[in-house]
Amino acid sequence: MGNTVVVGAMWGDESKGKLIDYLAHDKDVVVRWGGGSNAGHTVVVDDQEYKLHLIPAGILHPETLCVVADGVVIDPASFVGEIEHLRGRGISCNNLIVSGNAHVVLPYHRLLDELFEKRKGKKAIGTTGRGIGPAYEDKAARIGIRMRDFVDPVLFPERLAEALEWKNELLVKVFGEEPLSAKAILDQLLPHAETLRPFVDDTALRVAYAAKSGKKVLFEGAQATLLDIDLGTYPYVTSSHPSAGGSCIGTGLGPTQIDQIIAVSKSYTTRVGAGAFPTEQINEIGDTIRERGFEYGTTTGRPRRCGWLDGVALRYSSLVNGLTDLYLGHMDVLSGFEEVKIAVAYEMDGNRIVDFPSDQSRLSRCVPEYITLPGWKEDVSEIKEYSQLPANAQRFIEIVEQHIEVPITTVSVGRRRDQTIFRPR
Length: 425
Ligand code: IMP
Hints:
CATH superfamily of the largest domain: Adenylosuccinate Synthetase, subunit A, domain 1
Radius of gyration: 22 Å
CATH topology of the largest domain: Adenylosuccinate Synthetase, Chain A, domain 1
Largest sheet: 10 strands, mixed
Number of domains: 3
Shape: globular
Bound molecules: inosinic acid
CATH architecture of the largest domain: 3-Layer(aba) Sandwich
Number of helices: 12
Structural class: alpha/beta
Helix content: 25-40%
């Protein structure tokens, strides 16, 4: 396959990093298109664990060009920290470039994220607190600071002074906070600007020329479809476009150049932060899934909310992403349940519905209707062939596939690269 997009199917944390790392083998370019250090990929290679937030997982392949594109919002300290950490582990990062058009997350964005959340009280989104929403707000309001300005030693202090005039008014007059000092921010960030300057490039052109010359591009999704600001469960969403369509915005490739769109889903559902979650299991089942699947956030360490696979949400995700393939992961975590469930419809206001209502108000009134299947006792984590999976596990996979009408071409049974089962169409 030429150009491939990988997206999270549901509310994030689907372990996309493992698939991206695998696919990056035969790609020339890996592009991260959105989000910021709210994301977290854990990639395990030869028992070595790498936790990445902003840098594409493709960085582990030195011959692959890794691109942080226009739509990403960059926290300089976090970005530099990741580069230094990787260098310390023998990964050069010489294959990394970052778009001059990408917006920078500044200290007032983090502070405002926290203050907005506090002000919302019970209606708080449960953000990662990384300043993501306020940074995208400034981008849309056309008052943000972009990477190219950030690494310019003359422009950055000017742009920062302009921004602080507004931000300090907001901090002082609305929130009763102390104003932020430009000097303190410059002292903190100018060394990071120095470090990042060599990485800044016109990434959209680099990607476009690479594709024109026949190179293969992998788009690395962060977050997931149901957190998309338009398609997701608004307002409990992030502020970017993690669904497949987002991969074409500001990256240098147009929709006609995408050959394959793969969504990654777990064989159950998780969510962090607030918002409706119809198949959530606040009971022993949810606790068992959390402990077996080690469902704690890579970025924040928060325990994830856990529940049965929501086939209604997954079918919606398949439709709105135009999926060509589904990768079904964490099948090992479901081993040992007497029975396993898949939601195939909801009851809402006395009616049976099969289409996912993506707004909080309707979704919070939905009660799932499940198919209940016999579980499997066997440990599946070392199985290499689809035909070797227990019959009940195969049945589970095939029912999900029929329900969403998208082929499940890969099944994952553990965190390591070799715990992956490929299933020809
Ligand atoms: P924000 O992106 O920090 O503004 O958070 C908005 C919502 O998206 C919150 O519910 C977060 O928990 C959720 N979120 C953001 N990034 C991720 C992620 O990488 N995985 C799972 N949830 C995420």
